Amino acid sequence: MKKNYESISYCRICDSDDIELILNLGGQPPANSLYQSQENMPLTVPLRLMYCNECKTVQLGEDVDPEYLFGSYLWITGTSSTAKNYSKSFVQESLLRVKKEHHNLFIVEIASNDGTFLDQFQKYGCKVLGIDPATNIAKLASDNGIPTLNDYFNLEVSKEICKKYTKADLIFARNVIPHVKEIHSVISGINNLLSEEGIGIIEFHNAGLLLDELHYDYIYHEHLFYYTLTSIEALLKMHDLNIFDISNSPISGGSWVVYFAKKSRDKTKELIKAQASDLENQNNVKESWFDFANKAKEHAEKLTNLVLNEVENKGKIVAYGASARSSTLLNFCGIDSSHISVIIDKNPLKEGLYTAGSNIPIVSYDIGLENIINSDVVLLLAWNFKDEIINDLRRDGFNGKFILPLPGDPHYL
After folding, report:
1. pLDDT tens digit string along 15-72?
2. Is residue 53 part of a domain?
3. Residues 273 and 293 placed together within one structural domain of the fold
4. What is the pLDDT of residue 383?
5. 332 contacts: CB under 8 Å, gap ≥ 6
6. For a surface tag, which of 228, 259, 276, 329 has the fewest beta carbons within 10 Å of its beta carbon?
7. Is residue 23 domain-resident?
8. Is 259 within 8 Å of 246 (Cβ atoms)?
9. pLDDT of residue 32
10. pLDDT given at position 41
11. Inside any domain, residue 315
12. CATH number at residue 394
């Protein structure tokens, strides 16, 4: 099979060649390379976390072909009730910061997926446009009444949108800016498309939480960058965009939402406090990341031993959540189909497929219930949605224990 990645020798943000290895998670298939039983297993790619000694940006050491990663996509935002509920508060928070009447607003979302969030803006009377590179997902959104451009957003695409529509009053990018190889073209495109009085919003996983709560399972090939508040502000400043406010998101186990504009605005007290904490906690210091790497290796060993103990005493266990982050966790720990019988997942696009690298069959929620109703334990891989999942399984008759891998040391619930 043709090699589908390239290793970098320079920082993607500042072009410095002074980049250093922090953590090597081994060769792993891209996390969403789920496959059918009769297909060849996907290629493995080095999964290395690097640190730029010049601009302090943490990033991966390899670029995987974007078309391979995003041309057809398996994550659907609307399958998560947590995400659907959050979409309502996200839109309310966003509109509070825009001064124009809602029915006059033009809202653009970069990597809009199935349009769950844009649908909420439409309910307020806003005109919306989504951009998403996944053909299957863009069609799903369009079929659901969300105008969606099937493309990769960049500076040239932003110019085309300006010609066909108008400048945007609000542009938002949720959990996508860390994915983007051509990052400067994307941020330039946001600047070009944003109106003079408009605001931009970027939601991104809080890299400080990787350090504080050991979210090493968030490291996978789609996530090229691991931004802190300091590094995301530096990136936006390179393109004359100014952060002025911040809020929290429950997605990915904890994310920042930063608000920015072309014109400089006074920073809110919440933003000032959060940025001070970012510096105080040394989230941008190389030594903090080396400490993180050591703790990740120790954690993986503890989780592996816990699972092996269950398997030796009672046979294979069941897991819940064939998420991208679970792929990193399983492959780094060496947990596979010899330990786990099936992984339950509500996403219909994943049903009947096998996990990348660990080769575990993925089953629907209903089939999964048949597997676990008399089980003693479930490994909760999608731990960031633990409340939602535990409530569902308890309601439907599962009375056993859960192994919660993160945050902190793996433990039973």
Report:
1. 999 999 999 999 999 988 888 877 778 889 999 999 999 999 999 999 998 777 765 5
2. no
3. no
4. 93
5. 25, 26, 28, 216, 296, 300
6. 276
7. no
8. yes
9. 85
10. 80
11. yes
12. 3.40.50.720
Q: Which residue has the tokens 């809602």?
A: 102
Instruction: Give the C-alpha separation, 110 to 260, whole Å.
Output: 15
User: Is residue 179 within 8 Å of 240, Cβ to Cβ?
Assistant: no
Cα separation values, 47 from 27, 38, 329, 372, 406, Å: 6, 26, 12, 33, 20
Q: Is 119 helix (H, G, I), strand (E, B) or coil?
A: helix
15 lies in a domain?
no
**Residue 331: its pLDDT value, please?**
97
Give every residue of the chain whose pLDDT is below 50, as ranges: none
**CATH number for position 210:** 3.40.50.150
- Number of structural domains (the chain) is 2
Residue 98 CA neighbour count, 13 Å, CB half: 28
Q: Determine how many CB atoms are found less than 10 A away from the CB of residue 362.
A: 22
Query: In this structure, what DSSP letter does residue 361 have?
Result: B
Domain of residue 296 covers 288-412
**185 & 265 share domain:** yes
Task: Name which of 150, 141, 143 is nearest 121 in CA terms.
Answer: 141
Contact 200, 171 (CB under 8 A): yes
DSSP assignment string, 228-259: -HHHHHHHHHTTT-EEEEEEEE-GGGSEEEEE
* pLDDT value for 154: 96
